[in-house]
Amino acid sequence: YIETGGGTVTWCIGHIMKSYTPEEYNPAWAKWNLDNLPMLIDEWKIKVEPDKAKQFKVIKELLANASEVVNAGDPGREGQLIVDEVLQFLKNKKPVKRVLLFSLDAKYIQNAFTQLQDNAKFFPLYEAAVCRG
After folding, report:
1. Is the CA virtual torsion 41, 73, 77, 49 positive or negative?
2. DSSP 55
3. Is the pLDDT of residue 116 over 90?
4. By C-alpha distance, which of 74, 61, 87 is closest to 120?
5. Which residues touch 41 (CB under 8 Å, ≥6 apart)?
6. Model-level pTM?
7. Per-residue pLDDT tens digits for 7-33
8. Sequence-separated (6 or more) residues with CB below 8 Å from residue 58
9. Lower CB count within 10 Å: N or C terminus of the chain?
């Protein structure tokens, strides 16, 4: 992470969370068998990617000390998903704002941070990414 005059910046290093595999829900689903259909799941589960656990721990610790969160993930459904699923997994209750960065030059970034929006407005993008997955 990086500490700045305006706060602390960290990153999710891509998809930091992953879905459970079928056999993690039910050992019988480890091998394809027509008799196991339908495969119905009451609650979709995610977990931390093992090779990203160190960065997840950093995010968890920073979130514990934050007063608010600014989601600066990539614009679009996958960027929304990556950040939102971490915040949901950690049961975040702190305010979350969304900044949309379509360019990375300093002037554009400064302007974008003057136009923060409520992250909840982008929930449909998160849902679209979950459905795609």
Report:
1. negative
2. H
3. yes
4. 87
5. 25
6. 0.89
7. 999 999 989 999 999 999 999 999 999
8. 1, 10
9. N
